[in-house]
């Protein structure tokens, strides 16, 4: 089952973020940088801000939260961003990610496109986006919490792009 996140879900989402970040980025992003990011981005105050300003969905398996996805609102250019989609490793490849994505896409149906940025070495994440009709538009180097990373920008077109 997929539903909108509630305030009572914050602790479960924080735990999933920590577990999945450690699983996904082991060997890609140093553990100390992962910890810094998780503490900052998934603090209770930040989670309350996410609930207020964005759309967060949770995936439930037998009444237990096993994953979540976070979508921004559609901006003035008609873009929205998928800022996070994480599933416990034990519940990956069971269709929950696709259901979370579908819930978010319904919510942003007025958007022209959905953007997502993924670490280039995150093979599982990239495969998920490619299986779900996202197109890789570019890759670029950047610094993440002072650590050099390569990032891939993906786009999912909700409306056919118009060529000028």
List the helices and strands and how they pair.
Layout: E1 2-4, H1 10-25, H2 31-41, H3 44-53, E2 55-61, E3 64-71, E4 79-87, H4 96-107, E5 113-119, H5 123-131, E6 135-144, E7 147-157
Parallel strand pairs: 4-5
Antiparallel strand pairs: 1-2, 2-3, 3-4, 5-7, 6-7
- CA radius of gyration is 15 Å
Enumerate how many helices there are, as a single number: 5
Work out the helicity level.
Answer: 25-40%
Cα separation of the termini? 42 Å
Q: Estimate the global geometry from the Cα principal axes.
A: globular
Q: What is the strand arrangement across the widest sheet?
A: 1-2-3-4-5-7-6
Mean pLDDT: 95
Portion in strands? 25-35%
Strand-and-helix sequence, N→C?
EHHHEEEHEHEE
Structural class: alpha+beta
In the predicted model, the low-confidence regions spanning at least 5 consecutive residues are none
Major beta sheet summary: 7 strands, mixed
> What's the number of extended β-strand segments?
7
């Amino acid at each position: 089952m997929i539903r909108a996140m509630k305030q009572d879900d914050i602790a479960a989402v924080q735990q999933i973020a920590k577990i999945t970040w450690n699983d996904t980025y082991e060997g890609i992003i140093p553990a100390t940088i992962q910890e810094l990011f998780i503490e900052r981005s998934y603090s209770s105050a930040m989670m309350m801000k996410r609930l207020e300003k964005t759309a967060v969905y949770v995936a439930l398996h037998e009444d237990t939260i096993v994953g979540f996805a976070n979508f921004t609102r559609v901006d003035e250019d008609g873009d929205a961003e998928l800022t996070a989609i994480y599933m416990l490793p034990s519940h990956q490849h069971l269709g929950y990610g696709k259901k979370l994505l579908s819930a978010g896409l319904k919510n942003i149906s007025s958007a022209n496109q959905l953007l997502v940025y993924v670490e280039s070495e995150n093979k599982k994440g990239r495969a998920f986006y490619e299986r779900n009709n996202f197109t890789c538009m570019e890759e670029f180097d950047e610094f993440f919490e002072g650590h050099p990373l390569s990032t891939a920008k993906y786009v999912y077109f909700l409306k056919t792009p118009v060529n000028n």
